[in-house]
Amino acid sequence: MYNVNKKLNIRWLVMTLLATLFWQVAMAQSPARLLEASHEKAMISDGRFVQMAWRLDPTAKPDIYYVNVPGKRSVVKLTTDRGSVSVHTKPGGTYLVKILLHKKDTCLIKIASTLPPDLPESNLADIGKAAVSFPFELRGSKIYITGKLNERKVNIQFDLGAGTSAVNRNASGKLGLVFSGQTTVSNTAGVNSERTSAGNVVAIGDIKWTDVPMTEVSNMQPHEDIIIGNSFFRGHMISVDYDAMQITVYRVLPKKLKRYQKLPIFYEQDRPKFKAKFTQGGRRFSFWFLFDTGRDGTMLLGEDFTATGNHWELLDPLTMIGGRKIVRLDADIAGVHFRDLVTNAADPAKPNGRPSLFGNQILSHFNFILDNVNGFLYLKQNGRAGEPYFNYDRYLEVMQKKKSND
After folding, report:
1. Which of 68, 73, 145, 307 has its CA at a distance of 20 to 30 angstroms from the CA of residue 23?
2. At a CB cut-off of 8 Å and minimum separation 6, what does 115 contact?
3. What DSSP assignment string belongs to 365-384?
């Protein structure tokens, strides 16, 4: 009797496991239920922290949303004006959602719990060290690293706000790059289609990245040869220590975190965004900002903020320049207060695609660890706490000088 029950239990267990496996495969390969939408605006939420606008596009077959932290399970919810669907994701899974737009156009959205496939390949796993470090220097508030591009020495700007790897148009000739494609780039030079070189090799110390695309841009400084961003480190953990002037890439999160403040992040085109608070005109705001180490400035309020609710109307300007409001505010990041920041706010009626961000005049006041594996940012105030940034006093000086020149 015992043996019979044991056989039955084993058979039941096998059937249950097969059914579970079949369900998981079905979830990973089959479309979820059909949703409807009467306009293109939708929302995607991902886990506890991510909530972002999504534009439905019937021409994309499919449009792809990459799960914010693909190495962890998540719940991704897609919402239209006519309903919503939730997908329970697991690492490596892909899931399809169909949305019928205007009762005639079918939009396919693939939810992929993987890293984007176009990330540069590195030899970090082959180096075999728990941590690999290399030095950097600051010019203004920007980070520069000495490295190589296709065995030629280059000055690399490390820019976590960069959505693509870039090469200075004035340097691409001497670097011998061959261009074979085009990439649409949105930066301070506007939105342009630029030449792209494929299959490059970038090296910093012992670390090498292969199959690196380099897009030629015109808005770089003469001393900048190339720009690299977080796409080089998406599967890793990195720290930037301004006291030691050192960047470290980790395989395991370091233990020296007691004095750091932990913040969740989400990724926009591999670029990390974090939540910060600010006060303006007696009103308190909280918003997600790009962690932009490549911007030699304080911050920017983009139309992603000013177009939300009545934020644009609520902002009290010091003056208007080029259709933008110049505003004075106080900001709080990881428990550190920054007083009398002066920055500009974009008019939502004249969108240019620039997101809200904090630049490295502010961010360089923190040593930080960016945990790309688990989706967290660790911040600790460093020895640069007294370094100046563009504040109200400096604004008054600039305006006085401008008035004198006029």
Report:
1. 68
2. 66, 70, 234, 235
3. TEEEEEETTTTEEEEEE-TT
Residue with token string 């059914």: 19
Which class for 115: exposed (0-12), middle (13-18), buried (19 or more C-beta within 10 A)?
Answer: middle
**What is the reported pTM?**
0.87
Structure tokens at 116: 């984007």
Domain 130-250 -> CATH class: mainly beta
Question: CATH topology of 130-250 equal to that of 261-405?
Answer: yes
Rounded CA-CA distance 41/315 in Å is: 26
Domain spans, the chain? 1-25, 31-112, 130-250, 261-405
**pLDDT tens digit sequence for 105-129:** 999 999 999 999 889 999 988 888 8
The rounded distance, in Å, linking the Cα atoms of 120 and 231 is 7
Structure token digits, residue 13:
């267990």
Average pLDDT over residues 346-354: 89
Q: Is 178 exposed, middle or buried (0-12, 13-18, 19+ CB in 10 A)?
A: exposed
pLDDT recorded at residue 353: 80
Which whole number is the average pLDDT over 282-304? 96
261-405 fold:
Cathepsin D, subunit A; domain 1 (2.40.70)
